Amino acid sequence: MRYRIPLKLLVIKNNMLNQIAWEQMMFLGNLQFACELQPIDFALAAEVMGGIGYQRHPA
């Protein structure tokens, strides 16, 4: 926001660290450990940083 760069960012989330879960599945079998994230309000985070945040909830 400080440099007024016209940046657009799309965040698609499912509350998982999917790359870590994939690596655990490939190297350790079907184990998933510490891959789930707490919900994050990215729209609110954008607004707190001075940007504009939009949020769409699934129907």
Brief summary of the model shown:
The protein is mainly alpha-helical and about 60 residues long.
Instruction: State the order of secondary-structure elements, H for helix, E for strand.
Output: HH
Alpha-carbon Rg, integer:
16 Å
Q: In whole angstroms, how far apart are the ends?
A: 32 Å
Largest sheet: none
- Give the uncertain stretches in residue-range form: none
Number of strands: 0
Shape: elongated
| Tally of helical runs | 2
- As a percent range, the share of strand residues is under 5%
Q: Structural class, judged by helices and strands?
A: mainly alpha
What's the overall average pLDDT, rounded? 82
Number of domains: 1
Domain Thiamine pyrophosphate enzyme TPP-binding: 1-54
GO molecular function, one term: catalytic activity
Organism: Mesorhizobium prunaredense
Protein name: Thiamine pyrophosphate enzyme TPP-binding domain-containing protein
